[in-house]
Structures are given as structure tokens and as C-alpha cells.
Write a structure and sequence with these properties.
The complex is a heterotrimer of chains A (109), B (138) and C (279). By secondary structure, chain A is mainly β. Helices cover 0% and strands 53% of the residues of chain A. In chain A, the strands form two sheets. Chain A has a five-stranded mixed β-sheet with strand order 2-8-7-4-5, with no helix packed on it. Chain B is of the alpha+beta class and 138 residues long. Chain B has helices at 5-12, 14-17, 29-37; strands at 42-43, 48-50, 54-55, 61-66, 70-77, 84-90, 94-103, 109-117, 122-131. The longest helix of chain B has 9 residues, at 29-37. The radius of gyration of chain B is 17 Å and the shape is globular. With 279 residues, chain C is an alpha+beta fold. In chain C, the strands form five sheets. A three-stranded mixed β-sheet of chain C has the order 10-9-11. In chain C, strands 1-2 form a two-stranded antiparallel ribbon. Chain C starts with 27 loop residues before the first strand and ends with a strand. The chains are: A mainly beta (109), B alpha+beta (138), C alpha+beta (279).
Chain lengths: 109, 138, 279
């Protein structure tokens, strides 16, 4: 598990049925690209979050394949449709096998 | 007479211009687009991209892409050591086929977005982003 | 608002008669609350009429990152600091929250720091944090500019966001303030430059690819795109001195504390923007 990884998501607390909402997601992660060298000249191995997914009530919203060119502390902003009350499930997959996740409920306005 | 920031840099001449990293074109924009489409032609309409003309820092460059009706959008950085950046796959729960993220650019280069549409066709767009380096802030 | 200023040249830079700052027409709003980013300079500043937040000097894209707390990358570190605030640490079995109900009790603190305490010492927020940790929590000191400290002072500073910087420069503070002022105008290092050479004489100009700001610290700790993390005031002072090829003073030293007091007073009248986003 990479150290100090913390997600932060912006999700509205309520929405009307069928409303489109904009979501913002951030997670603290170094995204070690695998191209840097340490002070001894050895390449620091790649260690990134390689995939991000977002689903609402189990239905896929976004699934991002990520490469090292995504900046440190990966950020995504995107739109989702809220057909009914439910829950967003956000997942980030780390090269080292860890999975970070957070869930946010949305009620009907 | 007011001088814009960009004009200021032009007046600054060599000092300012030399701060831009040279145009890197390790892989041509067209080759990279073909790499995603498998050789198929990509239309130039139906996809838009927002990227800064001049990136304040190559570490964190905000990029937005939008292709209504797309199944997936792939972002490439033509001048990076590895051009691949990310592929956004949109599901039925998406409210639009658009996204914003922040990417690393190793130098001035073309940033490319290729959208795969629901009918199997492709659309592509590219924009040159200038990446500056150095100054006192480092 | 157009900025017109005739700037003298130092180091043979081309004189630019009129400089339009990137985004000078943009208004800073944070979560839609308007923020003032330029005001009349405080009376003690002789060579500057208007003081500007560092926000003004950044590109439109960088400016946008500070305008929403979910776009601002600093906030993942603020969230971590909130967790830290509520976590027991040290032999006394206490968390910050054991004595300080919530971070909100620190509202107003950042706006008047650094300040002279009742013992006559100039104190800064990292020192207050470490004093609590070592003397009241039985915990280890945090490094001045390490991630944990930067996050915590970011959290504390956030409580003063939007408040006006108001640092005392007279009375017990005056001797340290004078010392800080002397340091600000003193040339150092292989490049033989003082803080004022860039930040007072040449703000608004380009130094290679960097758009020089006035070097105000009202947004610190700041998330820099350059290193994708929160940067502290003394950390930046150290970096600046290294850029001039000078041997930097130590973080937490009397010199940097005096300089912090003086530099903070140069922003008296601006608003606290902690945690800001800069290049």
C-alpha cells in the first residue's frame, strides 16, 4: 500500500431524477513515473495508479486507463447522470496491487 | 500602449524564447493517431480539446477533452518519452463524453486526443502546448 | 485594471514600459466568494504603491486551480491534516483535538503571524505546533517543511482564509522587523542579489520563463505545480537563496523568522489565501 494515499471527491448530496451532475475527484499519490533516478543514479521504479473507475448503483460512468504521464495527485472531472437515489463508488488501482476507494450517496432532491 | 504577456516575451527576445524547450517530435502526430485507430482515418470534427497555449509548469498541465457520443477518448503526448497518457472509457452512467485531467509534458509538443465513436468511426484533434522551463522559481 | 509602471533595469534586463499581468482582469473567487488580490501598499513600504497577491501573476489555468476547493490539489493534504488533528500521537495519549475542539478554534491566528509572544520571542506557527507536540503530547517534533507540518499549518492557515493580513511591526516586534527588512534588502550569494532585486524592482517582468511576483506570502503554505506538494515559507526562502547560489539560513532560524515577519508585513492589507496554488 503506497503511503499517505487519500481520495477526495466532490459529489452533490442531492439531485433530481435524470439530472446531470459534474463530479470532481482527486487522490494524493506520487505517481512515480519510472523515469526518475535517485542520488546514486539508480532508476526509481514506476509506481503509479494505473486505473480509475466510477460507477453509480453499479452502472459504469467512467473507466480510465492511466499511464505515468498523469500528474502527481491525479485529478479527474467528469459528468454523471443520476437516474434515481443511490451511491457512487470510486476506485483507484495501484501498481502495487492496492485498491483505494470511496463511496458517496446521493438522495433525490 | 499596453503590452501583453506574450508580447513581453517576444520583446524579451532570446532570453525569453530560449526558455522554451525545443519542439520534440519523436513520433509524428499522424502516426500516433493511426496507432489508436488501427489505420482508419480520423475525422477532424466532433471532438474538442482545451489545453493551455503555454503551460506554466510541465508537471501539471490541465487538459479537457469532449467528444459527444464517444465510447472512449485517448490522450497522447507526441513528444513525451512514452506518448500514451490515458484512455477515458465512458459508460452508460456518464452524463457527457467529456473529462478534465492534469498531465505531465516533458517539453513543447503536440497533445493529441483520439475519440472512438459508437459507430466505430474515429475523430481526432491536436494542439501544440508550449512548455517552459526555468526562471528563478526553478 | 491596467498596470502601468516604468521599471528600472537591474542586470541588464530589457526595460518593459507597460506590463500587463497575466489575468489582470480576472477576479479571484474561491468557492464563488470574491477575494481581493490588490490593495494600496502598507505605509511602511517606500518603493511600492500597490501590493498584489501572487495569484495575479500566474497563467489563467493556474489561477483556475485555486478557485474551487475540489480543483485545488492542496486539499488532499488538508484532509490528511484533519485526520492527523484527530489522531492520538505521543506518550500523553492525546490528539490535537483532545485540547483544541476543532481546527476552527484557530480562526484568525494565521492573519497575525508571526508575532512576539509574552516572553518576548518571535513565534511562528510551526513552532507553536512543535511546542504542543513535544511539551503537551509527548510526541516527536515534525520537520519544519515536511509533509505533516506543511499539511497542519495549511489546515490552521485555512481557518484564516479571507481575513486581512495584519502583522504587527512595532513595539516588541520592531527590532526583529528591522532585522528582517535589512535581510530583505541585503545582496547575497554568488549572483549577489537581494530579495528586493526581483520582488520589488522587477515584479511583473519575466526572468527567463518565470513571471516574477512580488514575493508575497499571504497564500503560504502553497501547492506548487513544480513539486506537486505544499511548500512552506521557510522552505521557499531556502529555495530562493539556493537559486541565488547563497548558503541558505536554516528553516526556523532567527534570520528566517525575522525575514518572515518583514515579508508578511509587506502583505498587510491583502487577504490570506492559504492554501494557494502557484507555479
Amino acid at each position: 500500500m503506497a503511503k499517505g494515499v487519500k481520495p477526495r471527491v466532490k459529489v452533490p448530496k442531492t439531485a433530481s431524477a435524470g439530472e446531470m451532475v459534474t463530479l470532481k475527484t482527486l487522490i494524493s499519490h506520487k505517481m512515480e513515473s519510472g523515469r526518475r533516478k535517485d542520488s546514486d543514479g539508480n532508476t526509481i521504479p514506476r509506481s503509479i495508479i494505473n486505473r480509475f473507475t466510477c460507477a453509480f448503483n453499479g452502472k459504469m460512468v467512467l473507466d480510465v486507463e492511466m499511464l505515468p504521464a498523469i500528474s502527481t495527485n491525479p485529478y479527474f472531472q467528469f459528468d454523471a447522470v443520476i437516474p434515481e437515489a443511490g451511491e457512487f463508488h470510486f476506485t483507484w488501482y495501484d501498481d502495487d496491487g492496492s485498491v483505494y476507494e470511496t463511496k458517496k450517496k446521493v438522495a433525490m432532491a | 500602449m499596453e503590452v501583453t504577456r506574450r508580447e513581453t516575451m517576444a520583446i524579451g527576445g532570446a532570453a525569453a524564447l530560449s526558455a522554451f524547450l525545443p519542439n520534440v517530435s519523436l513520433a509524428s502526430t499522424n502516426d500516433l493517431i493511426m496507432g489508436v485507430t488501427g489505420g482508419a482515418e480520423a475525422a477532424s470534427g466532433g471532438i474538442s480539446m482545451t489545453a493551455p497555449e503555454i503551460a506554466e509548469n510541465g508537471n501539471t498541465v490541465p487538459i479537457s477533452i469532449d467528444a459527444p457520443g464517444a465510447v472512449a477518448i485517448t490522450i497522447l503526448a507526441a513528444g513525451n518519452p512514452n506518448p500514451g497518457v490515458a484512455t477515458f472509457n465512458f459508460g452508460g452512467g456518464a452524463g457527457s463524453q467529456s473529462a478534465t485531467t492534469r498531465i505531465r509534458l516533458g517539453g513543447t509538443q503536440d497533445v493529441i486526443a483520439v475519440a472512438q465513436m459508437a459507430d466505430g468511426s474515429y475523430a481526432a484533434i491536436s494542439q501544440t502546448v508550449k512548455v517552459t522551463i526555468g526562471g528563478c522559481g526553478g | 485594471m491596467k498596470l502601468t509602471k516604468i521599471l528600472p533595469t537591474i542586470m541588464g534586463l530589457v526595460a518593459i514600459p507597460f506590463v500587463a499581468l497575466a489575468g489582470e482582469d480576472s477576479q479571484l473567487t474561491i468557492n464563488e466568494e470574491p477575494f481581493v488580490t490588490s490593495v494600496a501598499a502598507p505605509a511602511h513600504l517606500e518603493n511600492v504603491d500597490t501590493i498584489f497577491s501572487g495569484w495575479v501573476f500566474r497563467t489563467d489555468e493556474t489561477q483556475a486551480l485555486q478557485m474551487d476547493d475540489f480543483d485545488n490539489p492542496a486539499f488532499v493534504f488538508i484532509d490528511q491534516a484533519i485526520d492527523s488533528f484527530n489522531t492520538v500521537d505521543g506518550s500523553s495519549g492525546k490528539a490535537c483535538a483532545s485540547c483544541h475542539e476543532s481546527p476552527e478554534v484557530f480562526k484568525g491566528l494565521r492573519a497575525s503571524m508571526p508575532r512576539v509572544n509574552s516572553s518576548g520571542d518571535l513565534e511562528t506557527i510551526p513552532e507553536l505546533v512543535n511546542n504542543c507536540r513535544t511539551e503537551r503530547m509527548g510526541a516527536e517534533k515534525w520537520k519544519w517543511s515536511g509533509g505533516k507540518m506543511a499539511g497542519m499549518i495549511g489546515l490552521i492557515g485555512l481557518q484564516s482564509r479571507g481575513m486581512t493580513v495584519d502583522v504587527a511591526i512595532d513595539g516588541p516586534a520592531s527590532s526583529m522587523w528591522e532585522k528582517g527588512k535589512e535581510l530583505y534588502y541585503q545582496r547575497v550569494g554568488q549572483l549577489d542579489m537581494s530579495c528586493s532585486n526581483c520582488h520589488e524592482d522587477n515584479y511583473g517582468n519575466m526572468i527567463r520563463a518565470d513571471h516574477l511576483s512580488q514575493g508575497q506570502i499571504n497564500g503560504f503554505p502553497t501547492y506548487r505545480l513544480k513539486n506537486a506538494k505544499l511548500n512552506t515559507i521557510h522552505g521557499r526562502f531556502k529555495g530562493c537563496m539556493k537559486n541565488i547560489r547563497a548558503t541558505p539560513f536554516k528553516e526556523g532560524s532567527d534570520e528566517f523568522k525575522a525575514l518572515e515577519l518583514y515579508v508578511a508585513s509587506r502583505s498587510n492589507g491583502l487577504m490570506i489565501e492559504t492554501p494557494s496554488v502557484r507555479n
